[in-house]
Structures are given as structure tokens and as C-alpha cells.
Specification:
This protein is of the alpha+beta class. The protein starts with 12 loop residues before the first helix and ends in a 9-residue tail after the last helix.
Length: 145
């Protein structure tokens, strides 16, 4: 699958303020903006035999990340499925019209969420973990290719 820019699915003010409205978006939109970190964490959890990392994408000059995705040996997984990490960064930088840097997320997801104001699974309208597992299952990982 070809990488897409997460910014195409940025939440509206009502989607940001109302968890139910945010939840009712398509899976692609939900995991592009608002629950990307949940999808990335589920990817890592689903393949414990692989060294899957979590990476945050920061737009130039921003303190908090705009997108989170899973990584494995040059591959990236997000709402677009698996793509090369350089392709994912390029498509997002092109869409935003400014440079983007990536940084590996160290530590636990709970620490990351607290530091960067991201929701933990229990803070969503419904549990996003089963939805993330179902979405991830739609995409064959690159090592099965």
C-alpha cells in the first residue's frame, strides 16, 4: 500500500471535543488522527518475536508529535498499512509543506501519552484495542512477502 499523509484526516474541532463523534469516523481516519499511537502499540504487541519500535513524527518547530507509527527494519506501519519509512516521512512532509523529523519512542506508551497529551485506551469512548487489532489484521507484514 502507498503511504498517505496523516494530516489529510486531521480531526475537526467537534471530533476533538466529542469522543463519540471521533470514534464514529472510518477506521482509516480514526487511526490516522487520534488513535495512531494505539494502532502502533498494537502492532508491536501483535508481533512480539519482531523488534518493532514505536516512532513519533514531529513537524518542524513542534514540541508534540503529529503522528505515531510502528517501525521494523526500514518499514513503517500506520493507518496506510506497511510502507517504507522514508516514503512515509516524505509524504507527510510534502503534505504539511514543512520538514518533519522522527524520533523513536523510548519507554512505555503510558509515559509517552502523559508527556505528549495522548489518550490511553481507557480514555476513549469505547475500547480501541479490539478495533486496532482488527484493522492491523487487514495488512500482511513485510516479512511474509
Amino acid at each position: 500500500m502507498v503511504a498517505e499523509a496523516a494530516g489529510r484526516f486531521r480531526r475537526t474541532p467537534i471530533e476533538r471535543s466529542d469522543q463519540r463523534v471521533s470514534w464514529e469516523r472510518t477506521d482509516q481516519a480514526f487511526f490516522a488522527a487520534g488513535a495512531c499511537h494505539i494502532l502502533a502499540a498494537v502492532c508491536r504487541e501483535t508481533y512480539p518475536d519482531r523488534a518493532i519500535g514505536l516512532t513519533a513524527m514531529f513537524m518542524a518547530g513542534e514540541e508534540h508529535p503529529s503522528h505515531v507509527y510502528a517501525t521494523w527494519e526500514g518499514w513503517a506501519f500506520d493507518f496506510s498499512g506497511w510502507s517504507s519509512e522514508p516514503e512515509l516521512l516524505t509524504v507527510n512532509a510534502d503534505f504539511e509543506g514543512r520538514p518533519i523529523r522522527s524520533a523513536e519512542i523510548a519507554g512505555e506508551l503510558t509515559d509517552f501519552c502523559e508527556r505528549h497529551h495522548h489518550r490511553l485506551p481507557h480514555q476513549y469512548w469505547r475500547d480501541p484495542l479490539p478495533r486496532a487489532r482488527d484493522y492491523l489484521a487487514r495488512f500482511a507484514p513485510p516479512w511474509t512477502g
